[in-house]
Amino acid sequence: MKNVDIVIVGGGPAGLAAAVAAYDNGAKDVLILERDEQLGGILNQCIHNGFGLHTFKEELTGPEYADRFIQQVKERNIPYLLNTMVMDISPERVVTAMNREDGMFEIQAKAVILAMGCRERPRGALNIPGYRPAGIFSAGTAQRLVNIEGYMPGKEVVILGSGDIGLIMARRMTLEGAKVKLVAELMPYSGGLKRNIVQCLDDFGIPLRLSHTVVDIEGKEHISAVTIAQVGPDRKPIKGTEERYTCDTLLLSCGLIPENELSTAAGVELSPITNGPVVNESLETNIKGVFACGNVLHVHDLVDYVSEEAAKAGQIAAKFAQGAIADETDKEIVLKAESGVRYTVPVTIHPDRVDDQVTVRFRVGDVYKDSYVSVYFDDNRIRHQKKRILAPGEMEQVVLTKKQLAEYPDLKTITVKIEGE
Amino acid sequence: MYDIIIIGAGVIGCAVARELSKYNARILVVEKNEDVCAGTSKANSAIVHSGYDAENGTLKARFNVEGNRMMENVCKELDVPFKRIGSLTVCTEKELLPELEKLKERGERNGVEGLRVLSREELLAIEPHIGDEVVGALLAPTAGIVCPFKLTIAFAENAAVNGAEFLFDTQVNKVYADSGVWHVVTDEKEYEAKAVVNAAGVYSDMFNNMVSERKLHITPRRGDYILLDRSAEGFVRHTIFQLPTKLGKGVLVTPTVHGNTIVGPTAVDVDDKESTATTAEGIDSVIAKSALSVKGLPVRQVITSFAGLRAHEDGHEFVLGEPEDAENFYNCAGIESPGLSAAPAIGVYIAGLIREKLHLSEKGSFVAERKDILNPAKLSLEERNELIRREPAYGTIICRCESVTEGEIIDAIRRPVGARSLDGVKRRTRAGMGRCQAGFCSPKVMEILRRELDMDLTEVTKSGGGSYIVNARTKGGE
Questions:
Q1: If both were cysteines, with which of A154, A293, A349, B354 could A333 make a disulfide (CB 3.0 to 4.6 Å apart)?
Q2: CB under 8 Å to B386, separation ≥6 — which residues?
Q3: What is the domain partition of chain A in residue ranges?
Q4: What is this model's ipTM?
Q5: Cβ within 8 Å of A, B 443-462
């Protein structure tokens, strides 16, 4: 069996950034395993701009953003295998993978970084009634067909769900000459970024119908129409509000799910809220030496934060692989998400293992205006920051420094919550 | 002229075709859809009933029990997944407990073996998630689960290997007899045969009524189902039925041979024979009713919902064989539950009637065995690597959720009665049947279909007919 210091599962933005950071932190024996035929992951089909404002201070397209990292990987001669599917990861960090050239093979890794990304929630999981004809796509599948294969799914489009990919595809299909009739969103707020609503819907006069859902799909062979209806506070359709729209395409952008089947099989504990691994300050899962970053950990809003988080994972994994990481001590601080905060990543902090700072990322469960993000160290409020707007579509973060943590040597619980005043 | 034309390539039509292919006869199967297993056979509970449910002395009882007994061998010969997991019919009302004994007696008279009434305690020991109100159950150890797609496809493939011809995308508009010869009229042309088998599912009344004065009337009875991801595997270990109460017939909860969990069906009579749309009420009621027999069903793991139509004949009975006024026209009508269970036995029975009537002789060259598409996951590491060296396509995973390789998909397309659409590939290989429901693999499967069948991407369909996936190039596309 081959031995490798760090195996990175996935060559998308998370895997690439993790590889570069691991290398730059002294781990020279790194291998990226990528299932697709090129590095870059889903960024390759995201041909719109708006990537990299934080990381590179300029607006790049998805492929351009990916290429910046791919070049860094190539400059360092970090090896990668394409068209290679990881089939299994054992708790002992034996990675089993397969491709056409090498067949099925095993690698013993000192550290594994999970960077498999996420997938879209399919129609079936949404329990939309009606027929099951052709012409219904998750937005990302349609994006691939249009941007990579160069084919259009149809000309009259209805979109259910206002996730970012759905919003981007509303604009993309419009630019390709299709008529996007509306975007229906079950929730009373959008799941996507504000800037995408403005640039992809408002600018093209595409209506966003909040608190609406699809209640019927017509067409036995190919979709021919949908019926949408308003939903009440219980998210159930309200009788009498039905409206029928003819269409030949229904796109779904109703949430992303971290792809953790490999993690689960390895025994990695998952959070029921994020569907991603439960990690500590080192982005390490409950399995020693197995780290997670990017959308497989929790779904991010901007790729810049994916890169940032992944670099951290790469840096720590490098330390781990070199035996330079402090062992976990009993001193463990638990993070709690309360009052509007849905979750935090990480879930625990071992202050002895914190180098300089820990970034705590989270999302809120509703829209909050003129509210405060508060952080409590046990009962002491150490942070109370006003935010003009907080929305579920945007990821939030607070940075905790080693110095702050050191001021509370007996700290047991850190609570992050949204407060009015 | 054909010896036999079979109308309909569902599980019954294909079972009959396979049995008839044992004899020296020219056989044609005509199907209006683009593939086998496109109607009732594709959307049902995927179970093999033990046979206690049907009334004593009925064809349903006879063919269910016979089919159940045959299933294991048939599935072994044809390499179809089948598991004899047993069924439990749970009773949720103390006053109804005697009904279980009655069912047991009825089953025993039907010839069902091993029936036993279990107490709640005995039940909990084998099914820990049983509902709080369940007071007892009838255990039928001979019940099982089967892959209905694979069973139908295997019958068809085996029939084709033994010489039966298949004609898809071909609707039969008229059937009539003239001077002892049957004429089967399609849009394109007219075919002649000595005998016709009516295995047209919900349309079988229509064909019977064209040729016989003994009219049939079939009501399509729609059933909504939900399917849970394999991550819920092990939630139940048996097929769990509910004893009907005054609130009506319950729903079943059962594992599938692939580790998914099926819950359903509803029973709604509809007029439209194509009406396979699910309804919100149907799905809600399936979930609500399941709570009677099991608690804590992980409904968040739903990956799809679907509806199927059962061909319910007014007589509430299978209609098998020749109507007295239509010689050499063989009905397989009213095949609702337990039709899938009965299919192997119906195949043998109908083929037997025709063999006798047409004096068919046995074919020495009949090949009884069929191998399914190779599943590389069942190979050892060495065997798998040897396979990939020989055929590298087995080293590329196309469907990540179900770990289906390109090699398997190519095999599904190239084999007899091969796949020609995304659904065809899905039913043969499971590519696209997993939790992402083809989100990632469909563009790749489309490309393989395009390449293998030498067509344009715009000609690739989900399930034939007008079910195209893409219909034009983008502005930048060449």
A1: A349
A2: none
A3: 1-119+256-325, 122-254, 328-421
A4: 0.92
A5: 443, 447, 457-458, 461-462
